[in-house]
Amino acid sequence: IVYGTDLGNAGPKPGIDRREVKAMAAAGLSATDIVRSATVDAARRLGLADRGSLRPGAVADIVGVSGRPGTDPSALTRLGLVMRHGRLVRGPA
Questions:
Q1: How far is Cα 21 from Cα 58, in angstroms, rounded to an integer?
Q2: Are 3 and 33 in contact (CB under 8 A)?
Q3: What is the pTM of this model?
Q4: Are 85 and 60 in contact (CB under 8 A)?
């Protein structure tokens, strides 16, 4: 399962859609599975070997959230900061 939305169709604002996260949790995915579906698994599915995880040589796209998404998937919807290609584009909330 890979996280995704139809943002090009006047749907939710860009970011992690709390309805999607809630539905994934209700379907039985663990918090860790939900995080992986939006990061490592999505990058792998799209053939983006340089994305999806924090490691040397990877593109530095980072989303910081408030909370512990590994145990509480709703934390994914509380955006704190965003870095794109290693540059801060949105500061902590």
A1: 26
A2: no
A3: 0.72
A4: yes
Record the tokens describing residue 49, joined without a space. Answer: 């070997």
The DSSP output letter for 3 is: -
Specify which residues 84 forms β-bridges with.
Answer: 87
Determine the Cα–Cα distance for residues 81 and 92; give it in Å rounded to an integer. 5
Q: pLDDT digit string (tens) for 52-92?
A: 888 888 887 888 888 988 888 888 888 888 888 888 888 87
How many CA atoms are closer than 13 Å to the CA of 33, on its beta-carbon side? 11
* Cβ-based neighbours of 32, under 8 Å, separated by 6 or more: 70
For residue 22, give Cα distances in angstroms to 1, 25, 41: 14, 5, 19
Q: Kindly report the backbone phi and psi dihedral angles of residue 12, in degrees, each rounded to the nearest multiple of 5, phi listed first.
A: -65, 160
